[in-house]
UniProtKB/TrEMBL annotation:
Transmembrane segments: none
Keywords, in A-Z order: Signal
Domain NAD-dependent epimerase/dehydratase: 44-275
Signal peptide (residue range): 1-34
One GO process term, biological-process aspect: monosaccharide metabolic process
Taxonomic source organism: Elysia marginata
Protein name: Udp-glucose 4-epimerase
Keyword Transferase belongs to the record: no
GO molecular function: UDP-glucose 4-epimerase activity
InterPro entries in UniProt: Epimerase_deHydtase (IPR001509), NAD(P)-bd_dom_sf (IPR036291)
Source taxonomy: Eukaryota, Metazoa, Spiralia, Lophotrochozoa, Mollusca
Length: 418
């Protein structure tokens, strides 16, 4: 079903509004702070840079005056078309295709003397990493790879504590390896990417690197929409058919989460501290060529997280969260079985100091409460409405009615598609 926003604004006004908002969003972060423009802007190549973590990271780097080249398929998520795209060089490239097809990237690299840093948000297959490294040999000061806690899914911990970086070792038995790969191909491929980086480095051709292993990341502009789905589910509960449910099997499972702002700030700091023409970090810099777990200190269960979102929405007395759904299992967190991560290494060596959990919940809820009535988030809003209509009720119009009553935003059915 198609749903379109009709909020009483003319298309022209809406368009103007978007432009102004885009400008404001770019300028605003710099207004209050004395941002020091570096003497020499750093040259940074970003694979991705238009998604959830990438957009926020790009914004920080743009604000600091760096020279960004983004390589991606050209989908601009949320408002990245306004806050990122105009301030960066863009190369359209689909990494699922052979790298030879990406002539623009090759040409760009042929003509560039070197890159201070590469930030890779989009390597999901070892071939993507091989391709990138084949073009980048000898040209990169630091390669920051955005990895995942799913790598622990294809390894076998010999303890039951939170996962340590050293736990990412595949089992020695090839049969067992294959078995685990089959259960989590995402984790398998992401670990394979880390392994490619490490091998190139060992063999002397690869750049210095850092892999950041991230759990489920939360915060504004999540392009997986998971948090927002839970939030809107609770907000519209009385207009939907499905109960809010936590599946019994994850009831007591603690979850590692990371906050998008903390992740972006950490990547930003890593890039700031690196210069292609320095032979190494200053002694107090973090050790390179390794992986770091990043997550919040707190590890709530899904039940606790939903209760905290509900509390922030002032719905504690009116919405019930059920803890046994029978066969009904909508479960969006966590995406792993291996449990939370131990972050003591990043705390000690990267100065990782994440935002506290209650602030994360408060700020994230606040963002999505506003997002539903933000005109320039039209695509995400439509996606959310379709999701509610498809999975949470058999009466699509109730979703529209609920949005009107709860948020005073009015969406009309499009009538010109007969
Ligand atoms: C890049 O440089 C290599 C080596 O000089 C050359 O073979 C290749 O054609 C160049 N690629 C492009 C797209 O200019
Ligand atoms: C557990 O695994 C780690 C990493 O694979 C290894 O260094 C350690 O010796 C193992 N400990 C035991 C008790 O087997
Ligand atoms: C919840 O209540 C507080 C205090 O009355 C208010 O400031 C806040 O905006 C409310 N939140 C929502 C989502 O309604
Ligand atoms: C994390 O690992 C460190 C170092 O191995 C250990 O001292 C600490 O107790 C662990 N923390 C948790 C919460 O498991
Ligand atoms: C979390 O951080 C906020 C802002 O820094 C602070 O006001 C609040 O007291 C902290 N909450 C907890 C539980 O530490």
């Amino acid at each position: 079903m198609f749903v379109t926003a009709t909020e009483g604004t003319s298309p022209l006004l809406a368009c103007l509004c978007r432009m102004l908002l885009g400008l404001w969003l770019v300028i605003a972060p710099g207004l209050g702070m004395a941002v020091e423009v570096p003497v020499t802007p750093k040259k940074i190549l970003i694979f991705g840079g238009n998604g959830f973590m990438g957009t926020r990271t790009s914004e920080l780097l743009i604000d600091a005056g760096h020279d960004l080249t983004l390589v991606n398929r050209g989908n601009w998520y949320w408002d990245s078309a306004f806050t990122v795209k105009p301030y960066t060089r863009h190369i359209t490239c689909d990494r699922a295709q052979a790298i030879e097809k990406c002539l623009k990237l090759e040409e760009f690299l042929n003509n560039s003397e070197g890159l201070d840093a590469v930030i890779d948000f989009s390597a999901y297959h070892p071939q993507y990493m091989e391709d990138a490294l084949s073009l980048l040999t000898g040209k990169v000061g630091l390669y920051i790879y955005i990895s995942t806690d799913s790598v622990y899914e294809v390894c076998e911990k010999n303890h039951t504590e939170p996962s340590l970086e050293t736990d990412a070792v595949r089992p020695s038995s090839p049969d067992r390896q294959a078995e685990l790969e089959a259960t989590d191909s995402y984790g398998h491929y992401k670990l394979a990417c880390e392994e490619v980086l490490a091998r190139h480095r060992r063999e002397g051709s690869g750049p210095p690197y850092i892999s950041l292993r991230l759990p489920d990341v939360v915060g504004p502009r999540d392009s997986t929409y998971r948090w927002w789905i839970y939030q809107l589910w609770m907000r519209l509960r009385h207009f939907l058919e499905k109960d809010v449910i936590v599946p019994a099997k994850v009831l007591n499972q603690p979850i590692s989460l990371a906050y998008v702002e903390d992740v972006a700030q950490t990547i930003f700091q890593l890039v700031q501290s690196r210069n292609k023409y320095e032979s190494s970090y200053s002694p107090e810099g973090p050790p390179l060529d390794q992986a770091y777990n990043l997550a919040l200190h707190e590890t709530p269960t899904l039940y606790e997280l939903l209760k905290d979102i509900r509390h922030e929405l002032n719905l504690t007395d009116s919405i019930t969260i059920k803890t046994d759904g029978g066969h009904e299992t909508i479960k969006l967190y966590p995406s792993v079985h291996a449990g939370p991560m131990n972050i003591s290494k990043a705390v000690k060596l990267l100065g990782w100091s994440p935002t506290n959990y209650s602030t994360v919940v408060k700020d994230t809820v606040e963002f999505y409460e506003k997002a539903i009535s933000t005109v320039h988030f039209d695509d995400p809003r439509r996606y959310m409405i379709r999701t509610m209509q498809t999975y949470f009720t058999s009466k699509p119009y109730d979703v529209i009615r609920g949005l009107g009553e709860v948020y005073q935003v009015y969406f009309g059915q499009r009538r010109d598609e007969l």
